[in-house]
Amino acid sequence: MAAGEDHGVDRGFEVDQPEVLALKQSVLDGLSAVPRATRVAVTADLRHDWIGALTAAGFDPTRPTAWLSEGVMPYLAPAVEQEVLAVIDAHSASGSVLGFEAKIGIDPDTQQHYPIYAAARERLDMNLLALFNAEPRTDPAADLETRGWSTDVHTVFHFAERHGVALPRVPDDALADNRWVFASR
Questions:
Q1: DSSP readout, 59-83?
Q2: What are the phi and psi torsion angles at 83 (to 5°)?
């Protein structure tokens, strides 16, 4: 979730629950992956004191940090999402950056028919929407801006187009509800 070094990444800290970290490590081992930087796995739950575990593992909040929260925020309760952003804000030196996925307005009742969710139910026997926290949430980009961060928000379509990839837009596309927030301090 955090990486830091003035001239490139020398260490990457990955904060997650023990089962997830173990699975990821087994996949890396199975691929005989050779890291380009030191990977520091930090066992913690974002709903609790994860920053304590991160700093105990060697994270230095006085150095600029690149934070990446990929595929996490929509699953957290809004209060936990706000707390995670507050902790990142409090532990980010000038020059830090942050990127994360956000979903504002998750509505399982009206989104059940979206093709991606219907396919997951049919093929995987999994209700993906049940995994998301559907409680109303505030706009995380606006929250970061009030904390002094500069933000840039993209849909998957705008982000793909910016990088020369044209994604087809289909009716009731679940991707249309996703936002990618990029912030810098």
A1: --TTS-EEEEETT-GGGS-HHHHHH
A2: -65, -40
- Beta 2-4 vs 11-16: how paired, if at all? antiparallel
Extract the tokens encoding 58: 């060697």
Tokens 């249309």 belong to which residue? 176
* pLDDT at residue 4 in the model: 46
For the record, the structure tokens of 115 come out as 């093709």
How many angstroms separate the CA atoms of 138 and 155, rounded?
17
| Lookup result for tokens 């994360």 | 100
The answer to whether the beta carbons of residues 65 and 53 sit under 8 Å apart is no
**Per-residue burial over 115-137, b = 16 or more CB atoms within 10 Å of its CB, e = otherwise:** eebeebeeeeeeebbeebbbeeb
Q: Where do we find the tokens 């044209």? A: 166
Greater confidence, 38 or 9? 38
Query: Which DSSP state fits 14?
Result: E
